Amino acid sequence: MQHTAVLIPGDGIGPEVSDAAVQVVAAAGATITWDTCQAGLSAIEAGASAVLPEVTLKAIKRHQIALKGPCTTPVGEGFTSVNVALRKQLNLFGAVRPVRTMPGVGTRYSDCGVDIVIIRENTEGLYAGIENQISAGVVTSLKVVTEAASRRIARFAFQYAASRGRHKVTVLHKANIMKLGDGLFLRCAQEEAQRWEGRVAFESLIIDAGCMRLVQAPDRFDVLLCENLYGDVLSDLCAGFVGGLGVTPGANFGENEMAVFEAVHGSAPDIAGQNKANPLALIMSAVMLLRHLAQSTNDEACTAAANRIRDAYNGCLLAGEATTDLGGSLGTRAFADAICMRLA
């Protein structure tokens, strides 16, 4: 089955890690045609007036799926973050960040067998960006919580858990203090949990206590359901359990199967073009893309390709064939080549 997906290489190290991901996907036998579009600083340098050009948005809407490398938002007035613009323009309401202990990547939590998925509401909360200066030295930030968005992300979290054989959803909140806003989010999660009783377990934790328990025993958690700000913080916290942002993929889901898969690390312009970047996070995001295609189109070949890529990079890590940030000595291209050798 032939598929077409948008590829946004990004800028900084983006083109290097994107090339590596495309190379690995092709070596695994996945038949994907890439519609390459620009975003971020590279779009501005190419003459676009916005970091997220309309032609890029139209391509994603047409194909319903994209793989995005890291993008730089130029410093200055008038430029909105590429990630924020994508979420708003495409209504990508659900961020998914899986983190798991990686073979050969040693951390303080390696013995725990961490395997957590953070699901974050992506469209509102404090990140709605509604701020006002009331008077000199006094600023208010409005936290927006709606029942529609809260129910939507709760439904998504339980559906995600059930479809991937996950056993428990934990909602993290501060409803003891923000009784209306976080209280609404919690209530929606509780009511959705009732629909899955006997199939997916449910628990709720106050966010500060939940963070303590995460640090103490991350292996007791499965799927974390969070509003926007909490999900952003916990995504990076949990990435620290398994080796950092270089080994954590990411995805943003919208309505009607629309999805954008991305590396969540920065564009690292200081090492751009030096063949030093670790492409694993974007390769892992490409594996998520393949699994999404398999689920949405019933293409078993995508599942097979995803499994082969996962086994190949796991094998590389176990053998010490990795980039320097993961304890190896390979450059970007050599690491991609090593994965491809295991796919041959």
Describe the structure.
The chain has 344 residues and is an alpha/beta fold. The protein has two domains: 1-95 and 245-344, Isopropylmalate Dehydrogenase (3-Layer(aba) Sandwich); 107-242, Isopropylmalate Dehydrogenase, CATH 3.40.718. Helices cover 42% and strands 21% of the residues. It contains eleven helices and twelve strands. The protein has a ten-stranded mixed beta sheet with strand order 2-1-3-12-11-4-5-10-8-9, with helices on both faces. It has a two-stranded antiparallel sheet with strand order 6-7. Strand 1 (3-8), helix 1 and strand 2 (32-36) form a beta-alpha-beta unit. Helix 9 runs antiparallel to helix 10 (300-318) and helix 10 (300-318) crosses helix 11 (332-343). The two termini are 21 Å apart. The relative contact order is 0.17. The mean pLDDT is 95.
